[in-house]
Amino acid sequence: MLVLEYAISGLLFGATYSLVAIGFTLIFGVLNRFNIAHGATLMVAAFGGATISILFGGKDSYIILIAAFFSATLIGAIVGLIVRQIAFAPLKGGSELSPFVTSAAMALILEELFVNLTQSVSIYSMEVTEFPSPLENLVFFLGEIYIRGAYLVIFLMALIIMGILHWWLHHTKSGLAIRCVEENPTAAWLMGINGNRVEIIVFAVASAIAGAAGCLISVAYGTVTPFLGSNLLLVSFVVLVLAGIGSVRGAMICGLLVGIIETVTAGLISAQTKEAVLFIILFTVLLVKPQGIFATSATERD
Amino acid sequence: MLEIHNLSSGYDNIPVLKSLSLKIDTGNLTAVIGPNGAGKSTLLRTISGLLSVSDGSIMMDGIDITKLRPDEIVGLGIIHVPEGRMILSRLTVRENLIMGSFQRKDNFQINKDFDKVLSMFPILGDRLTQLGGTLSGGEQQMLAIGRGLMAKPKLLMLDEPSLGIAPIVVEQIFNMIKQIQNEGVTILMVEQNAAKALNAASSAYVLELGEIKASGSAKSLLLDDGIKKTYLGL
Question: Which of A167, A179, A182, A191 should be substituted to probe chain B, the one whose Cβ sees the most B Cβ atoms within 10 Å?
Answer without folding.
Answer: A191
